Amino acid sequence: MSLQLLVQLIVSGLGMGFIFALIAIGLTLIYGVMNVVNFAHGEFLMIAMYASYLAYATWGADPLWTLPLVACAMFAFGIAVYYLLVRRVLRGSMTSQIFATFGLMVFLQALAQFLMGADYFAIRESRLSGVVEAASIALPVPQLAAAAGAGLATAVLYWIVFRTRTGRTLRAAAQDRQAAATLGIDVDRTYALAWGMGAACVGVAGSLLSNFYYVFPRVGAVFVLVAYVVVALGGFGSIHGALVAGVLIGLLQVVAGFFVSSQLKFVPVYLLYLLVVLIRPHGLYGRM
Amino acid sequence: MGIGRMWTAVAVAGLVCSAGLPLRAAEPVRIGALYPLSGQAAKSGEDTLNGIRLAVDIVNNRYPDLKLPLAGGEGLPGVGGAKIELIAADHQGSPETGAAEAERLIVQRKVAALIGAFHSSVAATSSQVAERLGVPYISGESEATPLTERGFKWFFRTTPSSRTQARDFFTFLREVNKTAAHRVQTIAIVHENTLWGQEFAKSAEDYFPEYGEFKLAINLGYQQGTTDVSSEVQRLIALKPDVVFHASYDAEAILFARTYKQFNFAPQGIMAIGAAFGSSAFRDALGSDASFFVVRDHWSRDLAARHPAVAQVAKMYRERYGKDMDGTPARAFTAMMTLADAINRAGSTDPEKIRAALAATNLAATQLIMPWDGVKFDAKGQNVLTGAIFIQTQEGTPKLVWPASLASAKLVWPRPAWR
User: Fold this and answer.
1) B232 touches chain A (CB under 8 A)
2) Over chain A, what HEC string results?
3) Going by DSSP bridges, is the β-strand pair B294-297/B363-364 parallel, antiparallel, or unpaired?
4) Which sign does the torsion angle of CA B158, B159, B164, B169 carry?
5) Under an 8 A CB cutoff, do B42 and A218 touch?
6) Chain A within 8 Å of B322 (Cβ-Cβ)?
7) Using CA atoms, how far apart are residues B246 and B404, in angstroms rounded to an integer?
8) Cα gap B391→B401, rounded to integer Å
9) Is B266 within 8 Å of chain A by CB?
10) Which fold is adopted by the domain A3-279?
């Protein structure tokens, strides 16, 4: 076991971990503010990845440059989904909310397969491909960029949620919808904002991911399953929780895959999850 | 109602009936196709089904220039010129869904035979349903050895099993060791952990005593549909095997190849079973990095030198479905042609007669687009006349590099460093 190997494992783990975290933060933000689980979250990721890929394939635009555009476009897409779909079912029962986003998931997957086919598409050469050598340790650039980019995006999100007026209204609407409304907060607008920000998070994640992962209609399912575990482990609605749990799971699966068995690499992850849920049913940072 | 009108009605009814008669005489033969058309393997399922669609079209319509059985005429002459109607069902890669769909096709759609199922795990459950209900089941690409070890009466397989295929890897390496300067000694097996991958890994492992010059470095299974394989690749790097044997589907083939390059893992050769490491999707996704993987394949366009029909079928596939044919659609195509030949000889859609005709199948090498000696089933329903080729992608095109008698390019061994 060399130092080189350990560092490479940790970098890969951090890269995946921050991606998991960023996807989960989007999910938990929407849930935290309005108690709706977005089952189509993985498909938002898929759309962002297709957008990055198509920009690359059509205009040769590097995912690094299209990242802000994809994030903005996804922000708009999230808001559109809120106004066109989610707002209408908010008055309905919990079940209809579940079915609405679940239906959106099925629809978007089928739409992607219809428009793009079931093929795998991958970006071949981007600015963020290859490796950097540091002290004779080869570090893959896409994973480093994923860790850095996702870390940065999380920091920006923290700043918005905890340091700005907009963030305060978000948190107010999350704590008590009616009280927030009486104090003059436009709750409807705040909800739309949560959807926009949640979608922008997966926009960034999808853009970073497209540097090293292929896109296909079901790619969302691969990542979002882990994201649900991240959200539950970190505590529903908690941004800190999603960040910590995402990085933890990313590292754990790489390390377990190396030292234990690659077939069982997610077993320690789910064991940890079970353990946390047994001891702290509301997750690491969740509120009761 | 006047008398005149009534006569008209009778006349019209008579016309309709008489027009209906010849149609009924050649009622289409319904065949159920079980493939993954959504889910993880949707892309492979689509490509494979397209191979079958092409075979059905060749049987149903007139292609006088194509020198394959049943291509020259329309439909199945043995069954009164009946055409084949293909009914596709989506099993999503799930064995339970596959079994349910098989039952639906047989009971509700009254299919005369089933073809499927890409995933060996799905072929296992769906062929069980066919066995119970007494309907012939042919598989052109589900490779797990146990499928034909069950001794089913209604199950037939044209493709070689994974055990036969695993042996080809050792034969190949033994020959490489005779010619190349670098001797191959240690081998790592990397496989996905559904039935197909496990079966290949087990078969390959069983050959090590027989081929004593090779040592197993590690048998590494991974979860299909994984997000990341860096820990797997790190384990390989730590062990430095001379050769890696891969059993992976399309998605993880791309993921592994990228991760190998990323960590600069460069064994003498990376060999693979199944078409994933030589598929067009793989080449599109990886560009020049797709080169030098050695794939034990079933089919190649280079076989056109042996039989002109290969090039014709490949061209038709390309024109129709907008992508190049590869080993899996070619094998599915062959299974469908074999089934059509059997139904034609059976002269009926009676399941028992089709089964007997399948069991008596004896197709020659010249009647196939495959590098095989023919199609002939043993008592367990396994084709015993299969053969192997090895393909290596060079400069963006897959080249046939082994056996030497069919080769169109020279094998590059050991593989050059990543660029």
Assistant:
1) yes
2) CCHHHHHHHHHHHHHHHHHHHHHHHHHHHHHHHHCCCCCCHHHHHHHHHHHHHHHHHHHCCCHHHHHHHHHHHHHHHHHHHHHHHHHHHHCCCHHHHHHHHHHHHHHHHHHHHHHHCCCCECCCCCCCCCEEEECCEEEEHHHHHHHHHHHHHHHHHHHHHHHCHHHHHHHHHHHCHHHHHHCCCCHHHHHHHHHHHHHHHHHHHHHHHCCCCCECCCHHHHHHHHHHHHHHHHCCCCHHHHHHHHHHHHHHHHHHHHHCCCCCCCHHHHHHHHHHHHHCCCCCCCCC
3) unpaired
4) positive
5) yes
6) no
7) 23
8) 6
9) no
10) ABC transporter involved in vitamin B12 uptake, BtuC (1.10.3470)
End-to-end CA gap in chain A: 43
Query: Looking at residues A61-88, what average pLDDT do you find?
Result: 94
The answer on pLDDT for B129 being more than 50 is yes
- The yes-or-no verdict on residue B7 having pLDDT over 60 is no
Provide the residue ranges of all domains of chain B, joining segments of one domain with +: 24-160+304-375, 163-297+389-402
Query: Is it the case that residue A144 has pLDDT exceeding 50?
Result: yes
d(CA B314, CA B295): 19
From A12, A120, A142, residue closest to B254, measured CB to CB: A120
Contact residues for B180 (Cβ-Cβ < 8 A; gap 6+): B413, B414
B241-269 per-position pLDDT tens digit:
999 999 998 889 999 999 998 888 999 99
Which one of B44, B189, B222, B234 makes the best mutation probe of the A interface by having the most chain A beta carbons within 10 Å? B234
What whole-number distance in Å separates Cα of residue A120 and Cα of residue B175?
35
Give the model's confidence band at B390: pLDDT under 50 very low, under 70 low, under 90 confident, else very high: very high
Fold match, B24-160+304-375 / B163-297+389-402: yes
Separation between Cα atoms, residue B314 and residue B325, nearest integer Å: 6
User: Which is more confidently placed, B131 or B23?
Assistant: B131
Assigned fold of B24-160+304-375: Rossmann fold (3.40.50)
The pLDDT of residue B5: 56
Kindly determine whether residue A258 and residue B235, on different chains, have CB atoms separated by under 8 Å. yes
Does the CB of B35 have a partner CB in chain A at under 8 Å?
no
pLDDT for the residue A269: 86
Q: Is A228 exposed, middle or buried (0-12, 13-18, 19+ CB in 10 A)?
A: middle
Judge whether residue B341 has pLDDT over 70. yes
- Out of A13, A118, A262, the one facing B46 most closely (by C-beta) is A118
Intra-chain end-to-end CA distance of chain B, in Å: 87
For the ranges A250-254, B225-229, B397-401, the lowest mean pLDDT is seen at B225-229
B263 lies within 8 A of chain A by CB: yes
Here the tokens at position A109 are 């997957």
Q: Are A160 and A169 in contact (CB under 8 A)?
A: no
Q: Which residue has the tokens 């992607």?
A: A112
pLDDT exceeds 80 at position A125 = no
Going from the C-alpha of B264 to that of each of A137, A185, B25, B162, the distances in angstroms are: 12, 55, 64, 30
> ipTM beyond 0.85?
no
Of B43, B235, B285, the CB nearest to A122: B285
CATH superfamily of this structure's domain B163-297+389-402: Response regulator (3.40.50.2300)
Interface test with B, best of A141, A214, A226, A247 (most B CBs within 10 A): A214
Tokens of B403: 């056996």
